[in-house]
Amino acid sequence: MGRVNFRMTGDASSGRLSASVELTGSAPKELHVKLRIPSKNTLQNLTVNGQPATLGGLNGDTVVIRSAGLKRFEVGGRIA
After folding, report:
1. How many beta carbons lie within 10 A of that of residue 22, not counting itself?
2. In 3D, which of 18, 23, 8 has the Cα closest to residue 67?
3. Residue-wise pLDDT tens digits, 11-54
4. Vertex 18, ends 53 and 15: CA angle to 5°?
5. Which 8-state DSSP code applies to residue 12?
6. Residue 25 CB burial class (10 angstroms; 0-12, 13-18, ≥19)
């Protein structure tokens, strides 16, 4: 798979959360990005590369991305 470049930022005033993921090697079929936020909050309006996305995982805080051979992903959402 190779190296993974990852960056996540949040803006408390607007409630926006964004993450950038870039794969330098071959792309896996699926990529899991866990978005850790305070347990009292929820994630809304989640997107991956501008397309609507949903959360999965045991705690409902993981974006499951089907890579389709892509190597760069922009995840966005709002913390409520």
Report:
1. 13
2. 23
3. 888 999 999 999 998 889 999 999 888 888 889 999 999 999 98
4. 95
5. T
6. exposed
